[in-house]
Specification:
This protein is of the alpha/beta class. The chain folds into two domains: about 120 residues, Aspartate Aminotransferase, domain 1 (Alpha-Beta Complex); about 240 residues, Type I PLP-dependent aspartate aminotransferase-like (Major domain) (Aspartate Aminotransferase, domain 2, 3-Layer(aba) Sandwich). Helix content is about 40%, strand content about 15%. The chain contains twelve helices and 14 strands. Helix 2 packs antiparallel against helix 10 and helix 6 packs parallel to helix 7. The longest helix has about 40 residues. Bound molecules: pyridoxal-5'-phosphate. Pyridoxal-5'-phosphate (PLP) binds next to helix 4 and helix 5.
């Protein structure tokens, strides 16, 4: 989005709308028509089930008629909520009921509902540094005090979470929620370890706060075993889980959800203004995924694993011998790179721009500044040959950008 140039209504804006109005929130420098699109987490367009969606739409319209085109259940189309329960059971052995699910306009909007329900300006919340830039912008719009904790190979640093909670308690304050991306953390890549998942649950209870568990990619696991969702470990009803169909069906369907204790759902509903979110598209997605979810996800796992491997091969062929650090995520869409020492990030941006390679600079992911030594690459969009080729070009640019 470009920064609006007119000042005609600036003085009338709400304080929430003013956050990021100066353009400060958008931090990557877009390459005009990139040859290698490694910037955003865009799903692979070649993997979209075009014919299947046409067929599902026709089948759904025949079966549902006018129901499909009128206002829907405020909590979201029940068929989709049942499907989400089935998906959770299938991939993660998580047992919930449709009464736990609240449909939203993608998981970005689902997270915004949770922030709206619990976070007032100035409230302390804890999140990872680095964390997903989109969520960071989403969080900033709600104006909280963001307390950042580091991420290591086991995910969010739980000792740092405890220290932050304890510090707040000494000040007579309470953290409103702890936001964490549990699987293939975006951007750094690790899974939150199982012991840490348990510790997080205990901390939420001990310090009377919530966990907002963001899982946008969990089914797209290439290696290793699925870890139990924090939601499944929490017997105290202190976890809200956000999910999405963006990565396994298509981001254009704009369908996500929150999974939460039923008593909490009216707090989200108040921000949704009636009619339910996207009843028509919820039905189309449900009719398609009811028939095809498992084989389609299996296909996607192979698609994205090949891209990750191609990208890693391209990077390591050129950068071996330097002190670069390159993540090897067990799933998801992203590779996180700590640039070799002496790399000039501004020079790298120039060189990448000239080579038309789009990536996201690390600074987009840190709430309180920093990240200059990091970049994030999305392997999701380009085909494997372009992942390989573009990464070799980028890796050479990294070598050339050393001071
Ligand atoms: C960690 C994470 N959460 C949430 C989202 C939001 O996805 P959507 O709004 O398309 O469901 C994304 C998208 O890239 C993501 O990476």
């Amino acid at each position: 989005m470009t920064t609006p140039s007119t000042a005609r209504f600036d003085h009338l804006l709400s304080s929430r709308a003013r956050i990021g109005w100066d353009g400060s929130v958008t931090t990557s420098r877009p390459v005009a028509s990139p040859l290698y699109e490694f910037g955003g987490g865009f799903p692979d367009p070649a993997s979209f089930p075009y014919d299947g969606m046409v067929e599902a739409t026709a089948r759904m319209m025949k079966a549902e008629g006018a129901e499909a085109l009128t206002y829907g259940d405020p909590q979201g189309y029940r068929g989709m909520r049942e499907l989400v329960c089935h998906k959770y059971q299938l991939f993660e052995n998580l047992h919930v009921t449709p009464e736990n699910i609240f449909v939203a306009n993608g998981s970005g909007a689902a997270l915004a509902l949770a922030f709206s329900a619990f976070v007032d300006p100035g409230d302390p919340i804890i999140c990872e540094a680095p964390t997903f830039s989109g969520s960071l912008n989403n969080i900033r719009r709600h104006g909280p005090e963001i307390i950042a904790v580091p991420v290591d190979a086991d995910g969010m640093d739980i000792t740092a979470v405890r220290e932050a909670l304890e510090r707040l308690r000494r000040q007579g304050r309470r953290c409103k929620l702890i936001y964490t991306i549990v699987n293939f953390q975006n951007p750094a890549g690790p899974d939150l370890s199982i012991p840490r998942r348990h510790e997080l649950v205990s901390l939420a209870e001990e310090y009377d706060t919530f966990i907002l568990e963001d899982d946008a990619y969990g089914e797209l696991r290439f290696d290793g075993d699925t870890k139990p969702p924090v939601y499944a470990l929490d017997r105290n009803g202190r976890t809200i889980r956000a999910g999405t169909f963006s990565k396994i069906l298509g981001a254009g369907v704009r369908l996500g959800w929150l999974c939460a204790p039923p008593a909490m759902l009216p707090a989200f509903q108040g921000f949704n203004f009636g009619g339910g979110v996207n009843p028509f598209m919820s039905r189309v997605a449900t009719y398609f995924l009811r028939e095809h979810m498992e084989p389609h996800v299996k296909l996607l796992i192979n698609v994205y694993r090949a891209k990750r491997d191609a990208m890693l091969r391209g990077l390591w062929e050129v950068l071996t011998g330097t002190d670069v650090e390159i993540s090897r995520p067990a799933g998801g869409f992203f590779i996180w790179i700590k640039l070799p020492s002496g790399t000039d990030p501004a020079r790298l941006e120039e060189l990448a721009l000239a080579a038309r390679v789009q990536y996201t600079p690390g600074r987009a992911f840190f709430p309180g500044g920093g990240g200059e030594r990091h970049i994030r690459l999305a392997f999701s969009y380009e085909q494997p040959d372009k992942c390989y080729e573009g990464c070799r070009i980028l890796a050479r640019a990294i070598l050339d950008a050393r001071r």
